[in-house]
Design goal:
By secondary structure, the protein is of the alpha+beta class. The chain has twelve helices and eleven strands. The protein has helices at about 5-20, 40-45, 50-55, 95-100, 105-115, 140-145, 150-160, 170-175, 215-230, 255-270, 285-290, 315-335; strands at about 55-60, 70-75, 80-90, 95, 180-190, 200, 200-210, 235-245, 250, 275-280, 295-300.
Length: about 350
């Protein structure tokens, strides 16, 4: 979902070379292809090449605009923790007539456990889950409240009957600035055509949590493991496999670099740029900021309906051309800033 946006940067550099023979500042490209599997090796590559990759600013285009006609800078991302849960009740599938009533059904057990992880107000029930979650300030609440967001339009675009979320927060706060817990997949038992009266031997689920800045994904993973083990009945065995994760990110919205990006987008798109957060995760962002001691700018040109990760993924052509113009201007604006 950012291949087209990478090309926009190449086109912006090419434009500078065509007109001025070179860009107004030094530019290093890093094109990383491991993001969807957790960027397992990228951290070591960066740590071992800090001098080669040294920079004053890191510009990433892997985010989306709020909607068409509203160019923006993303100043916050959520983190991620991901794990798999396996529950076993017997050595093999059992006849439900011969064993039903005295042997635990792993699917029944697992679904009950998973259902208990959230209450009826949408809050996660795992002890300690919210301990490090920082709530947004009054100023940020006001800023998000002014952004254009049509709940009915948003729901219709994805075919959802209605939106739901944690009580006490606006939709954009739920979407961008609050932690979540979701079951990404669940399977087990007989799933073929017809009927087969079995008590499945095993049940499985994939579970992910989107985390806000200041929540440590490894700490959260340990809390989830401890809680799931504590609520597992003696009638089944549970195995939990932590998978990949990453920290969230929150930038200072008043930084000169963000103001430079706002000015570039305003000129490139002909309308004022907005400041947004995003509910997704880019694990390399906090790592790059920390290891290279550089400010990260998230300036994306995708749209919510770009069908990211789908076979018909797309990039809006108007955004493509206006985005290239904006990047040309942004390079100039950044070159005029005093290095941090």
């Amino acid at each position: 979902d950012d291949k087209g946006q990478v090309y926009m940067h190449l086109a912006a550099v090419a434009s500078w070379i065509k007109v001025n023979e070179k860009p107004p500042l030094n530019i290093k490209f890093i094109i990383e292809g491991e993001e969807e599997v957790g960027s397992e090796h990228f951290g070591d590559l960066v740590a071992n090449n800090k001098e080669l990759l040294a920079a004053d600013y890191i510009l990433i285009s892997d985010t989306t605009m709020l909607k068409k006609g509203f160019p923006g800078i993303t100043y916050g991302l959520r983190g991620l923790a991901y794990l798999q849960i396996d529950v076993r009740g017997s050595n093999s599938d059992l006849h439900s007539g011969s064993f039903g009533g005295v042997v635990a059904n792993p699917i029944n057990v697992l679904t009950k456990m998973l259902a208990s992880l959230k209450d009826d107000k949408g809050r996660v029930t795992i002890p300690g889950f919210y301990d490090d979650a920082v709530e947004i300030s009054a100023a940020e609440h006001d800023g998000l409240s002014k952004l254009p967001f049509d709940e009915i339009e948003f729901a219709d675009a994805i075919g959802a009957p209605a939106l739901t979320g944690e009580a006490g927060f606006t939709r954009l706060e739920q979407l961008w600035a609050r932690p979540t817990l979701d079951i990404n997949g669940i399977w087990g038992g007989f799933q073929g055509p017809g009927a087969k009266t079995v008590i499945p031997a095993e049940a499985h689920a994939k579970l992910s949590m989107r985390l806000v800045p200041n929540q440590d994904w490894q700490k959260i993973t340990k809390q989830v493991l401890a809680h799931l083990i504590a609520i597992t009945p003696e009638s089944v065995e549970i195995s939990i496999t932590p998978m990949h994760g990453g920290r969230g990110y929150l930038a200072g919205i008043d930084s000169p670099a963000i103001q430079a990006a706002k000015a570039a987008l305003a000129e490139g798109f002909g309308t004022e740029a907005v400041l947004t957060r995003e509910g997704g995760s880019i694990p390399i962002v906090p790592m790059l900021a920390e290891v290279l001691n550089a400010e990260v700018l998230l300036v994306g040109f995708g749209l919510p309906d770009q069908n990211a990760h789908a076979p018909d993924e797309n990039l809006d052509l108007e955004n493509f051309h206006k985005g290239i113009r904006s990047l040309v201007i942004l390079y100039q604006n950044l070159s005029e800033l005093k290095p941090i």
